[in-house]
Amino acid sequence: MKNIKIALSLLLLISISSCDDFLSEVPDNRTQIDTPEKISELLVTAYPSRSYFPIAESMSDNVFDTESKESVNIINEESYNWQMHTQIGTDSESAFWMGSYEAIAAANQALDAIEKLGGQETLDPLKGEALIARAYNHFMLVSFWANRYNPATAGTDLGVPYITKPETALLVAYKRNTVKEVFDFIEQDINEGMKYIGNEYKEPKYHFTVEAAKAFACRFYLIKGDWDKVLEYSEGLGSKPTKIRNYAAFNAVAFAQMPIEYSKVEQETNLLVAYPNSIANRWAAYRFALPGNRSDEILGTQTNIWAKPHLIRSNGQYFGGTNVFVPKLYEYFKYTNLTSRTGEPYTGSVLFSNDEMYLNRIEALVMKNRIAEVNTEFGYFLGTRTSGYNATTDILDETIITAKYPVIANEFTPFYALSDLQKSYIKAIAEARRRDFIREGLRWFDIKRFNLVVTHTTLEFGKAIKTNVLEKDDKRRALQIPLRASDNGIEKNPR
């Protein structure tokens, strides 16, 4: 572990956000955060201002070469080839890194202000939100810029700097914590934050509420392999929750309205919604996306457990006659100059939902060998996504799962052991998660933790001219540290 010195203005506080101007001031010139109202306003910026959806999706096996030469995007192409981004624009790796650390800086400033106000009981919900937000942002950083969590190697694997104090100097000594240290700090912040987190917000779906915090805890403990904790935090859902997405109702909405509908705070399944500065919706039109001739591999009837049509579908909509997409990302363009028609794009993004938490719960049940419960709950979940589902005849059992998802040697290789039956169920759940969260980046988390091999092929007139394979334990699974950070002392990932 190395102690390093980095320029704070280059690592944490370079951004287009207003939070940048505030936090980069020397302490004596800062606005004093000395009331609950000011702390609450500050915590609005404790969430990442940029999106990880396009980065994660382009690295996954959800995308292919569409050969759409007129829609080439450098960042899209570099992600497809697991290369370090050479640009720092919207939806770049560097932008997400910066945005995450700026959010952490805001959370730390809020926690410091709460402490200086004497830890008043009325400030407890703000303290809980700040702690959970700090944990979440560090979790996302370590998920992308470090090796997958493995307790056998986490003590030596390079993680990310875990920042717990507001900065009071322009030059700060940091260390790059190990993955184990980062996970320990995240767990500590989750446990502490859960003591105080509340629901009293004017717009609760834009904040970490109790339920959103539980959903985050479920994702964290799923990665860590603590099945009891996943079940503990998801217990309130029940075996057949009604507060999951109703795809039949979603598909009945006018196509143009669908992206708005998907991320609406009124949707009961949506637990945490954000509007990061992002053009994630436009990535469906880029060269490396989901072409119509490959979409059935993910969304086709043959991938349904009962060989029936999925309710999750592309709805036959095309970009340029080639690419298809599930309409779920709504872009709001905020004009800053109406005359020149310039401004900033923001994309409605569901960061946590009951749907994800329910699937995480089902996976934990598989790992606890509670297969009868899995058949009931997973069968119910798949039924809500299947056109023509009949609860009387469409019954899920071990025979159906193992026939549909036979064991393939060395395919799913997490850090923990899997029985053959668990391998079949885990693949079934991973494929369901892949469909449910297509375009939202969660597939990359499964690729990483299960060590799945991904092959990306570049085409020319329909023929392969380059095949790029992300092998198991490939070093490229950990993104390279952004150039601005490495230039200022942050140790790079090995290549």
Descriptive account of the structure:
By secondary structure, the protein is α+β, with helices and mostly antiparallel strands. It has a single domain (about 5-485), classed as Serine Threonine Protein Phosphatase 5, Tetratricopeptide repeat (Alpha Horseshoe). It is about 40% helix and about 10% strand. A three-stranded antiparallel β-sheet has the order 4-9-8. Strands 1-3 form a two-stranded antiparallel ribbon. Strands 2-5 form a two-stranded antiparallel sheet. The model is unreliable at about 1-30 (pLDDT under 50).
Write down the CATH topology: Serine Threonine Protein Phosphatase 5, Tetratricopeptide repeat
Number of helices: 19
- Overall spatial form: globular
Strand order of the largest sheet: 4-9-8
Topology (SSEs and partners):
Elements: E1 3-7, H1 8-11, H2 18-23, H3 36-43, H4 53-59, E2 64-65, H5 74-80, H6 93-116, H7 124-145, E3 171-175, H8 179-194, H9 210-224, H10 227-234, H11 247-251, H12 258-262, E4 270-274, E5 288-289, H13 296-299, E6 318-319, E7 323-324, E8 330-337, E9 342-353, H14 354-367, H15 371-383, H16 398-404, H17 420-436, H18 442-449, E10 454-460, E11 463-470, H19 483-486
Antiparallel strand pairs: 1-3, 2-5, 4-9, 6-7, 8-9, 10-11
Short overview:
With 495 residues, the protein is α+β, with helices and mostly antiparallel strands. It contains 19 helices and 11 strands. The strands form 5 sheets. Strands 4-9-8 form a 3-stranded antiparallel beta sheet.
Short descriptors:
alpha+beta; 11 strands; globular; single chain; three-stranded antiparallel beta sheet
